Structure formats: structure tokens, C-alpha cells
TrEMBL record:
<protein>
    <submittedName>
        <fullName>Glucose 1-dehydrogenase</fullName>
    </submittedName>
</protein>
<dbReference type="InterPro" id="IPR002347">
    <property type="entry name" value="SDR_fam"/>
</dbReference>
<dbReference type="InterPro" id="IPR020904">
    <property type="entry name" value="Sc_DH/Rdtase_CS"/>
</dbReference>
<dbReference type="InterPro" id="IPR036291">
    <property type="entry name" value="NAD(P)-bd_dom_sf"/>
</dbReference>
<dbReference type="Pfam" id="PF13561">
    <property type="entry name" value="adh_short_C2"/>
</dbReference>
<keyword id="KW-0560">Oxidoreductase</keyword>
<comment type="similarity">
    <text>Belongs to the short-chain dehydrogenases/reductases (SDR) family.</text>
</comment>
């Protein structure tokens, strides 16, 4: 069901060839946005565009590495040239190839940290840097960056990822403060565990059961859950919301840590 909440808007979405970014591109296009579907994965971006066009939406694919500033500059120029400007920026690109190497801080490998931070954090810096002048020229715009629950509730592993995602919050609030008076809104979506290609194989069956046990919801998250939150943040209804972190975690971070143990003691499983 679409209510045309983004009609007339042009949107640039990174990481839109997979998972949450792809779901966001689908939903934004359904809501009337013209979407540049950007991803390192050219085939993924093309598949998202094909889906959108099949539904009658407007989208263009673009292959770019968000950790490369020159490529990001080209990407933003493409979006502006193709759709006559830029109103909405959404950052979902994330480097999952470093997961097995992103372990204990005492063994931190500079190259691994750089690979994680350069995509998940600097990608957001570069896209904002190049998009902001265009948005300011139009009198405003909306940016949403993907953080994660892990940004402030880290797992035992993935310290570089946790650091990147914490950094995304600081960056987004900085943009909100610096440019809010000029009509720019910059918010954050912070997903809990979402079943997506990005998390495929990340958790064992037993770990997935533990995740489900820690949900204050009857299921794990889906890419659409985050995309719909992002739609709200990008929509006119969120006009007075700036520098906000919208947690989309099925209530995982809402309760005291001992609740599952108490439930087990009470025989609730
Ligand atoms: P995903 O399925 O792995 O999608 C991420 C996309 O980013 C992939 O298509 C990937 O391409 C692309 N990408 C990787 N490096 C890139 C680069 N340098 N430049 C441009 N694109 C690049 O991820 P997801 O699970 O949907 O997550 C989306 C966002 O939400 C991420 O920022 C993630 O950290 C965050 N998040 C996800 C969860 C979750 O449980 N899924 C939880 C919290 C936060 P390749 O396939 O070629 O690598």
C-alpha cells in the first residue's frame, strides 16, 4: 500500500543491492521516490532496479565503493544529474567481509579496522559531504544512516564494527546540529538482528534461538521492518525529528538483562 509520501523526491540509497538497503529502495520507490540504487555489488543493484521497474517505479543502478571518496563524488553527481537534484540520502553499505577477522582489541589489525571503518563510517561521511551542498541548494534534505544496536550494546566480537556503528551516531548528530537550521535532517536507524543476506551464516542455529529468546517480539526482524522506519524518518511526517536514533530491534534492548533467566526459572522457556 502506497500513500505517495515521497512523491517528487529523489533518493540515493547505498547498500541498496541487498537486505535492508534493497528493501528501503523498494519501499521508497513505491512511495513515489526516484531512486539511485548504489552498491558495490553491481548485480545486486541491477536486481533491485529491475524489481522496482517491474512494479512501475523509477530507479537507476550505480556501482560505487563508498569508501572511495572520488567514487562517492561521482555517485552523487550521477544522482543529481539523473533526477535533477537530491532530497534523500540513505546509507546502508556495510563491509561484512571483515567479520571473521574483527576480533579482540588486543589483537587489533589496523588493516581490518580500516576496512570496516572506511565503509561503515567514512562511507557515511563521504556521501554526506558530497550530498549536502546539493541539498542545501534545494533548501533542505533528509539523511538517514544505519547504525546498529551493537553500536552501544556490543557483542564479545566485532569491536571495529561496534566502533564504526557508534561513530555513525556521533556523525549523524553532528550533521543534524551543523545543518538543521538550514533544513537538513539527519537521523539514524539502529537495527537489532535482522534476517538478511548480511547476517546469513553469521549465527549458528543455537545462537539464532538465543536471539529469538531475547526478542520482546514474536519473531526476528526483517529488512522491511527497518525500511518502514526509514520511510517514516524520510517522510514529511518526521519534519521535526532531527538527530534521532530510531531503534528497530523488536524490543531487544528494552528490558533488564535478567528477564530471560527469570522466564526460564518460571518454566516459561
Ligand atoms: P547486507 O545485506 O550485507 O547489505 C550491505 C550491502 O552493502 C551489500 O550489498 C554489500 O555489497 C554492500 N557494500 C559492501 N561494501 C560496500 C562498499 N564499500 N561500497 C558500497 N556498498 C558496499 O547488509 P544488511 O544486513 O542489509 O544491513 C544493512 C545495514 O544495516 C548495514 O549498515 C548494517 O551494518 C546495518 N545493520 C544490519 C543488521 C542486521 O541484522 N542485518 C543489524 C544492525 C545493523 P557486497 O555484497 O558486494 O559486499
Amino acid at each position: 500500500m502506497s500513500s505517495g509520501r515521497l512523491t517528487g523526491r529523489s533518493a540515493l540509497i547505498t547498500g541498496a543491492g541487498s537486505g535492508i538497503g534493497a528493501a528501503t529502495a523498494d519501499i521508497f520507490a513505491r512511495e513515489g521516490a526516484r531512486v539511485v540504487v548504489a552498491d558495490l555489488d553491481k548485480a545486486g543493484a541491477a536486481a533491485t532496479v529491475e524489481r522496482i521497474r517491474d512494479e512501475g517505479g523509477v530507479a537507476e543502478p550505480y556501482a560505487a565503493d563508498v569508501s572511495d571518496e572520488a567514487e562517492v563524488e561521482g555517485l552523487v553527481e550521477f544522482a543529481v544529474r539523473t533526477f535533477g537534484g537530491l532530497d534523500v540520502l540513505q546509507n546502508y553499505a556495510s563491509n561484512r567481509t571483515v567479520v571473521p577477522e574483527d576480533v579482540a582489541v588486543a589483537g587489533a589489525d589496523a588493516a581490518v579496522w580500516t576496512r570496516q571503518l572506511s565503509v561503515d563510517l567514512m562511507g557515511c561521511v563521504f556521501t554526506a559531504k558530497h550530498a549536502l551542498p546539493h541539498m542545501l541548494r534545494r533548501g533542505g534534505g533528509s539523511i538517514t544512516n544505519a547504525s546498529s544496536l551493537v553500536g552501544w550494546l556490543p557483542l564479545e566480537s566485532r569491536p571495529a564494527y561496534a566502533t564504526a556503528k557508534a561513530g555513525v551516531i556521533g556523525l549523524s548528530k553532528s550533521i543534524a546540529v551543523e545543518y538543521g537550521r538550514q533544513g537538513i535532517r539527519c537521523n539514524v536507524v539502529a537495527p537489532g538482528p535482522i534476517v538478511s543476506p548480511g547476517t546469513e551464516g553469521m549465527y549458528t542455529a543455537e545462537q539464532t534461538e538465543v536471539l529469538a529468546e531475547h526478542m520482546a517480539a514474536p519473531r526476528l526482524g526483517r529488512p522491511d521492518d527497518v525500511a518502514l522506519a526509514a520511510l517514516f524518518l524520510a517522510s514529511p511526517e518526521a519534519a521535526f525529528i532531527n538527530g534521532h536514533v530510531l531503534v528497530v530491534d523488536g524490543g531487544m534492548s528494552a528490558y533488564a538483562p535478567m528477564v530471560p533467566s527469570f522466564r526460564r526459572l518460571a518454566g516459561e522457556g
